[in-house]
Every structure is written in C-alpha cells, then in structure tokens.
Design a protein that fits this description.
About 30% of the residues lie in helices and about 25% in strands. It is α/β, with parallel strands linked by helices. The chain folds into 2 domains: about 230 residues, P-loop containing nucleotide triphosphate hydrolases (Rossmann fold), CATH 3.40.50.300; about 160 residues, P-loop containing nucleotide triphosphate hydrolases (Rossmann fold, 3-Layer(aba) Sandwich), CATH 3.40.50. Helix 13 packs parallel to helix 14. The protein starts with a strand and ends in a 6-residue tail after the last helix. The structure holds adenosine-5'-triphosphate and magnesium ion.
Length: about 500
C-alpha cells in the first residue's frame, strides 16, 4: 500500500466537509473518487496535497506517518496534483513552467539547454508531446494539461491527483488523457481521479470510492459495479431521461445574419454565420471546442462588439452593442467559465445571485436595496436548485466547484428572460443535479423561452435540442432537426466530415 488516509475530519466554520474518511491506494493503481457536488472530494485531495490541514486523522505514505503543512511537504513525499484550474504562467515557455522551482543552473545562471534537454527527456519517457520553447498561452488546453502533468512528474511524483481533469477537454483530448493515465499506472505511478463522468471511471479505474455528505458510502472494484449502480450510490435514486413534448416555436428571440469576425492578424475566426432561435425551442451548437463557439457567443452576448453582420435579440437590433444593452433586450447568459465571467469569487453568494439585477425595481427602491426581497429571492434559488451552501453571506469561493456552477445556472434561468444562452451548463455537475438542470432548461422552453445551447457533451446536445447547428472552423455548414440525426453522424460532421 503506497498511501493510506485514515479517519480524516475537516470542518470549515459551519460545514463538516470530511466526516471520518478513510481511503487506501496501492502502487500502480487508479482509484476513482466519485460523489455528488459538495460531497467533500476536493477537500480530501486538498488535505492530501497539503493545501488544507485536517482537524484530525492521519496520512501514511509507504506505511510511514506524515504531516503536510503545505504542498511542498506533500511534494517531497511524492504527491503531485493537477488542479481543476491550471496553475501555469501564461507568458513563460513550456520549459520554464515545467522546471519552475526545480531548475538546473550553471552557477547563478539558468542552464537553458540542459533544462530544455531535461524536458525533452521527460516528454519522451512518458510519451507526452510538448514543444519546450512554446509559450504556454499559445498551447491548447489539452497541451496545457500535459504541461501540468510533466511538471508533476519532473518533481518526481509517485502519486498523481487529478481533480476533474476532463471537464475542459475535447473528446479527443479526453481519450488521450485516459490513455496517459493508464500508461502512467503501468509504469508504476499511482493515480487518484475525481470526476463526474462515470463512463471515464468505468474505462480506467481499478477501484471506485463513492462519497456522500463527507463520508465514504461505497467502495467497489470496477468489475463489480456499473454506471447505474454508481449513480445510485451517489444520489440515492435512479436517473431518468427527460420527456420533451412537441411544441410549435413562436417568435424569434435571436437572429444572426452574416456574422463575420477576423482577428488582429487578419485570420478569419467566424465566417458568415446565419442562425436563428425562436421561443419554445432549444437550439444546440455542436462542435469540437476551439471551432469558433466562444467567439460566436462573445458576439451574441456583447462581450465582443467588434464584428460585421447583424444581430437581433427579441426583435431589437443589438449589433455591436455591449452586455448591458443586450441583457436589457432580453438575454440571460450562462457563461463558459464560471469564475472568469460568471461570478465574483470574493463576493457573497447573495451578491453573486443578484449580480446585474441590483438596480431593478424589485430589489431596490429609490436607490435603497430591499434586503427582505433580496433574501427571499436568494433563498428560493438556493433551495430550489439544491445549491449546497452553509449561509447566504458565505463567499462564492468557498462553494464546491459544482455548487458554484449550479448557482450561476440558477441565477440565469430564474431571470426568466425570453432568450437564454447556455454554455456548458452542466460542466462539473453531478449526475443528479445534471438531470435537474436539464429539466429546468426544458421547462423554460415549454414556457416559451428560447435557448441557445453550447456544449462539448454530444449527449447533452442530442438529449435537449430541437434543432442543431454544427460549427466547424468558424463556419456553420449544417443544420438539422434532432429527429434526423444520431451521435455518429454528428461526431463525423463535427470533425469536418461532409455529407452527401
Ligand atoms: N474554504 C471553505 N470554507 C467553507 N466551506 C468550504 C470551503 N471549502 C469547501 N467548503 C465546503 O465543503 C464542502 C465540500 O466541498 P468540496 O469542494 O470538497 O466538494 P466536492 O465533492 O469537491 O464537490 P464538487 O463535485 O462540486 O467539486 C462543501 O459544502 C463546501 O461548501
Ligand atoms: Mg470538487
């Protein structure tokens, strides 16, 4: 046994995040930890990586008791962690990032050649291809993750922790990541994987631990269990599929005509896009991420005002207008990155729910905030959507990843605008909450709302959409009603395939 965590307890002022958690890890094993949002998975890993101190409990590495006061203590014992949000320096090269704090020097100077050589060696040994001289900001997300992994391996980690590593990756990158994990475990590395994607769990894990409310509630070898059983352990019931009733779409809530955008260097990012969304329909945009989805959404939502073409929201011309104007016209927006665009981490939950609405009549009178009304509204959202918070004045950054996501999704759906742009609405969300959010989106559609859905999960697009556009290299060349499409055909078109 390479690792044992024994009777770990972690209490934040009013939350017991870990109640008495014990796990073990064998050398060369891949252990998956699954569980609903707020179950305490990330907390347990933060303790193992020395980012948090437990109130009680012990950690043994190779049978020897260890106390980690900080990540560098943990690293010295061979523990490395790929964070949910990468911790790389954007404007430094791949080599500089990998060797950071572990450089080879000649006297007081950095020996660039030796370091570059070291990175090449590592990259070859573990079959993780990178260009040592590239700047990190010029590398796609999948490569940035590879850099994180190499950095940990460079620090001689034997135990690798992955906390939701696949939520930001394209399907091809996910495949590669899973292969990398298997290869590393075959080379004797031990891996802990946290994820909500039970398919991935069943593909790579040797053993699975299920957590609920800060406790371990089940432990199974992969051969002994199934996706259905695991989700049952996680949420205490079976999942179901939503029924989507037939509906006649009504008036147009989004019209995009001949939208084009070039970047500073003259490269075409969006080429002549025409799309339309009507009330009473969910329109999906399917595509491998990086094919123009983000750029398109930025134009539609007013985060980017520099493009040509014409955009109307609810019949109002919003071309080249900013966020405030378009929101007034009738838009709500679940953004792709919940921390970057969606929320203020240091602000409270209540402030985050209110964001953008604080000056409406409902919440303020003659410039004074109506606290009673605000509290009621926030409380209702938290209750309805099952956001796990301890009190409404809690800071956003103290929520678990999935609960922060739920809060933003709830805020935007509950604005009850005629038009909603939903980007990756269920990223980082557990299977039970996903089902609930899907129901809410369908409910909005049934009530006459129009939704533009962007998701890298094909299954989500296929499950919810009335109509689907396929985006490839900044162009939309195909449009389908959901009835004449299956995931194979869609996958083929997303990779630029042509139909007859
Ligand atoms: N710094 C903190 N202060 C207060 N409470 C916290 C803090 N960090 C985490 N918590 C609480 O501890 C509980 C467990 O959170 P944790 O992040 O471990 O959940 P998780 O299982 O990783 O969930 P998710 O799947 O959403 O990522 C949550 O209720 C969360 O609000
Ligand atoms: Mg987490």
């Amino acid at each position: 046994m390479i690792l044992e965590m024994k009777n770990i307890v972690k209490v934040y002022d009013r939350v017991v995040a870990n109640k008495n958690v014990s796990i073990t890890l064998e050398k060369g094993e891949i252990l998956a930890i699954v569980g609903e949002n707020g179950a305490g998975k990330s907390t347990l890993m933060k303790i193992l990586y020395g980012l948090e101190r437990p109130n009680s409990g012990e950690i043994y590495i190779n049978g020897k008791k260890q106390v980690f006061r900080n990540p560098s203590d943990a690293m010295k014992q061979g523990i490395g962690m790929v964070q949910q949000h990468f911790m790389l320096f954007d404007t430094m090269t791949v080599t500089e990032n990998i060797i950071y704090n572990n450089e080879i020097s000649k006297g007081v100077f950095l020996d660039i050649d030796a370091n570059r050589k070291k990175v090449r060696e590592l990259s070859k040994r573990y079959m993780l291809e990178v260009d040592p001289d590239k700047l990190v900001k010029d590398c796609p997300v999948g490569v940035q993750q590879r850099i994180e992994i190499l950095k940990i391996l460079h620090q001689n980690a034997d135990i690798l922790i992955f906390d939701e590593p696949s939520s930001v990756l394209t399907p091809i990158e996910v495949d590669e990541l899973l292969k990398t994990m298997k290869r590393l475990s075959n080379m004797g590395k031990s891996i802990i994987l946290i994820t909500h994607k039970l398919g991935e769990v069943m593909e790579v894990a040797d053993r699975i631990v299920v957590m609920r409310d800060g406790e371990v509630v089940a432990e199974k070898r992969r051969e002994e269990t199934s996706i259905e059983e695991l989700s049952y352990f996680m949420i205490g019931r079976q999942t179901t599929s939503p029924v989507i009733k037939d509906l006649e779409p009504c008036k147009e809530v989004l019209s995009v005509k001949n939208l084009s955008k070039v970047d500073e260097s003259g490269k075409k990012l969006l080429g002549n896009i025409n799309i339309s969304v009507r009330g009473g329909e969910i329109v999906g945009i399917a595509g491998v991420s990086g094919n123009g989805q983000s750029e398109l959404i930025k134009c539609i939502t007013g985060l980017d005002t520099d493009y040509t073409g014409k955009i109307e929201v609810c019949g109002i011309n919003v071309t080249n207008k900013g966020v405030g104007f378009i929101r007034k016209a009738g838009l709500a927006h679940i953004p792709e990155d919940r921390y970057y665009w969606g929320s203020a981490k240091e602000a409270t939950i209540a402030e985050n729910v209110l964001m953008g609405d604080e000056n409406t009549e409902r919440f303020s009178k003659k410039g004074l905030l109506n606290f009673r009304e605000i509290r009621k509204h926030v409380y209702r959202i938290v209750e309805n959507y099952g956001v796990k918070v301890s009190f409404l004045a809690q800071k956003m950054k103290e929520l678990s990843g999935g609960n922060a996501q739920k809060l933003i999704v709830a805020r935007e759906i509950e604005k009850k605008t005629p038009f909603l742009v939903a980007c990756e609405p269920t990223r980082g969300i557990d299977v039970g909450a996903m089902e609930f959010i899907h129901e809410k989106l369908i409910e909005k559609r049934n009530n006459g709302g129009g939704i533009l859905l962007i998701s890298s999960e094909l299954s989500e697009i296929l499950k919810l959409s009335d109509r689907i556009y396929v985006i490839y290299e900044g162009r939309i060349e195909h449009e389908f009603t959901n009835k004449n499409l299956d995931s194979r055909k869609l996958g083929f078109l997303m990779l630029g395939g042509k139909t007859a």
